[in-house]
Fold:
Amino acid sequence: MLAPGHYSDTFGVDNTSKHYLIKRTIKGSTLRAGVSFRRPAGGSLVIQSEVRLNTLAGEQCGWSYPRGFDGDQGLATGTAASWSKYEKKNDECADSDQLVLTVNPGKAYRELKGVPYELRIDEEPPVDSIANLPAAAADPVWTQMSGSTPREIVPGSSFPDAPLLQPGTYKTTLMPGELQLYRVKADWGQRIQAQMTVPEMAGAAGEALDGIRYLDTALISPTGEDVFAVFAKNVPGGSYTKAVLTKRGLVKGLTTKEIRYLNRNGANNQDTGTSTPGEYYLAVSLSRKASDKAFTIPLNLTVGVVGTAGAGKPEYVDGATPVSGESVTPSPTETPNATASTTPSEPGDSGDKNRAGEPVQGRSDSDDGTPVALVAGLGGGGVVLLLIGGLIVARLRKKPAPTQWPQS
Structure:
């Protein structure tokens, strides 16, 4: 049984699903569950898993298929939510006090055997009214960003250790096959812009690059949706996420739509993924060749947040507050004693309607009262594996970059 929070687990040894029980603490709230993992090297061109959110009766509420492609950043993310823009006569997904999250490795179960994944649970209360809220955001137009003197930054290798970037310019180095993650916080009425710049490279750096490479980028919502605005206008390097890199360097931009509540009714991830504020993620990676020896390229990151913070902020029922996985530190589920009650409680039974996501202390739907153990926190083995890779990269990055930075 899971409360809102951030967890880690691993895919099993076969194609058996893993199930988690999520308790709704406010009637009519929106529950979101995000799953992400690094695809293992080699194997199939596409490695895809399945994420589903169902009622206890089996009604399907939301689903996604996190997939990682060979040759790109290798990060697979996906989100399943209880919200649907399609009204139903009896919407159990919106009213059930418990939902079941299912994670399945799909056809790639042999390749995903033992691979760690991260799990994020959020809960958002219903709003009082949508009458005065701004309409869903339109396709954005790139806003020119003024550069500043770059500051050194150490990238993260997983969501929990991604550094939080304030608007400004940063510099680092990037290795082939390395995935770098950064966090950028955005509020209602704002959108994120990120620009990656690789200067022209000569000498050893140009030779090591060895022809054409691909710089792969992504903007990811707090719960794991791919949210770059596909049809944004005037974006440097085009609005796609992959850019061709040669020794001449490149400039590549990405942006999201403005964060608005009614984006949740949109047709795709760039809409639904920008329907809540919070900490978004910027992912950057460089394609690798089998013959590569360790080398780095210089990289500049310029980050901006466009718009007025708080514009279009909704009012939630009874003044309730959303609970996001980034703001909760879950503790393991306690084992109830033999006399512990196993009667499901209704949302709000505690009398405190303003706190979503209280830690869940035991499974209430089990015939024998046996609890389902809470998934280990992100200090667990899955993140240790990710951080080991990060430490190796950090040691290699201590070597001087092949070229000097130009004056900013």
Summary: The helical segments are 92-95, 203-209, 269-272, 381-397.
